[in-house]
Amino acid sequence: MILGLGSNAMKRREFITLLGGAAASWPLAARTQQLAMPVVGILNSAGDKWVAAFRKGLSDEGRVEGRNVAIELQSTEQYAEVPSLAAELVQRQVAVIAALGGPAATAAKAATATIPIVFSVGGDPVELGLVPNINRPGRNITGVTFFAKQLLQKQVGILHDLLPKALVFGALINPNNWRHQGDAEEVQAAARTLGLELHVANAGSEHDLEAAFAGLVQRHAQALIIAGDAFFFRIGTRLVELAERHSLPAIFSTRELVDAGGLMSYAASLAAAHRQAGVYVGRVLKGDKPGDLPIEQPSKFELVINLKTAKALRLEIPATLLAIADEVIE
User: Is CATH 3.40.50.2300 the right assignment for the domain spanning 149-267+301-329?
Assistant: First the structure.
């Protein structure tokens, strides 16, 4: 989804196997079997929350960590570090690279043309240059998309249905996100179609948030679209608080932030997307060729509305929106 830099950089390296001090007493055959376990390298730029969903998909394919698969996790919030982490996984000669997030997918593809790669991204993989074709990606790469960019125009329309008299909308975008220009163009195109005035605010770190929201308020924004972004997800509760403090009805790109108190979201399930990436890695370990596996796309997008937040904002949700909502949080 996906770029975003927090003010507190984090870099974790985690390599999990069953080899330990007690291994010296194991029979030679057991140690040989352990060493032969395939290693899955996770290159993660999407946020730690989604790693658990990936592991679930891997286990659904019969790959149990520590029993018949080992996992090496390279995770960072600093996107400039992603290429070097990809190179480490290639040097380690892992069996498969699971690239979670747009920066991870790009770095993995640049790092190897031979090790199988399974990605999960929020953009169009063809448009992003990851694969030439959705149905037959070819070569050593396949994956999952949840089309975060393509949802932005629909999100503008939903906010317009909520506030049909509003004339000025705002959009919050992370300028460090590799999709930021495309995201801005999508929102602007939707706003023009509806005859709306749109102001884009950029926030690439937590230090930028106060100024970004203050600028939108000064420009009389009456509603807010928050673009899908890994950094925005990590600081989601802060975004929810700022939207409430400034009385800005906001639509998010993940339902988890509506659970946290956001007003509404329209999106595919990110957990399901990352789980499917794990399933694909399991299939590759069974012998499937990545290039023969079509890019998985969402089968459903969900509208989730938080009525408690609507009440706090003194908003009445139109019956038409309630009727099409997939979930209404009371």
Answer: yes
